[in-house]
Amino acid sequence: MEHKEIRKKILELTREYYQAKFANQKFEPGKSRVNYAGRVFDEDELVNLVDSSLDFWLTEGRYSEEFAEKISEYLGVSNVALVNSGSSANLIAFSALTSEKLGDRRLIPGDEVISVSAGFPATVTPIIQNQCVPVFVDISIPTYNIDVEMMEKAVTKKTKCIFLAHTLGNPFNVDAVKNLATKYNLWIIEDNCDAFGSKYDGKLTGTFGHISTISFYPAHHITTGEGGAVCTNDEQLGKIIKSFRDWGRDCYCNGGENNTCGKRFTQKFGSLPYGYDHKYVYSEIGYNLKMTDMQAAIGAAQINKLPEFCEKRKTNFNELKRIFTKYDEYFILPEATENSDPAWFSFIVTVKGNAPFKRDELTKYFNDNLIETRNLFAGNMVHQPAFIGKNFRIAEHLNNSNYVMNNTFFLGTYPGNTDDKLTYIKKIVDEFLSKK
Q: Which residues contact 160 (CB under 8 A, 6 or more apart)?
């Protein structure tokens, strides 16, 4: 057989394999685990992955181009750089703002960055890694996003940037953040890792900041296994982002290309000899954080399902809220930010102080019955071992962040949580609370 015929047969068998291996998996209450998140896929992702592997093009290639273009079209942004994780996306996004090419606006050591401590560390660690100072503002409950009234009080002459995540898919108050950034000429980095598909004022999140980031870890709205993206509509920032991602090189040729600028051997950089090969000129202190084409192949299929996934997340959120509303004397239930339409990453619950049980009693009961829960990530980051003794500033107080650390958890809204799993969650909630 010719290799094209063999390839066709392999891909046909891959579709059959999916049906035999992964399709029609049944949920058995009390025996099957109810995950808080996970990968949801069909034969399309598997076929793309195998197809890419048969190319044996191991770095960025045709699927990377396709996936980046689909993200660009979905968000309406001009520059998308695929990376190997959402955490890397945040690192690249923040590091890009330290580039000398940005002149007086560049971030330098000692600059302050407004953020929150009740979230995931990867939104904050790039600030510390670049020797800038996180300024932690408390959150508001029940949106779990930054307290906008406290936010402006946190600004000083050293403030240069706002770096925030849309908490668990619930957009932060974009208008307030943008107004503050305009007033004080601040950069905005929008961590969209938990909110890919959410909307604020009818517009997709990930399109409001100077730079935004996405994660494709299996827990997120779509997955490539490991993976992420950095997005911007600013052409200069787009080039800087790709430079930091690609070893810090000045050249912007794609893999396998040469002399895109037409001046490969006719330029002068630093104290290098005139005409030094542009492919080996480094203008930033960068990394190698690219996505592989096999990961992108999965993403190119996953993103086609994003609208459907987002709708299912909203449906699951609404059902969980219906389940918990019956017991609202014990719980603070989540609320969408005004003027927003979240594609909820999860259903977040805070146990009230007067409840006849503690959070950990309830989450233990859930987990004993094979229902996964998670706390709101790091809780209050300032209490985490890695952050103790680090250079940060607390804007005013972190009372709500401390309360969340001790009393808040979330359940999964991801599309894999089918109706029978939600029915089981209701049974366990009712069972636990009937004893209280």
A: 105, 107, 111, 112, 113, 132, 186, 187
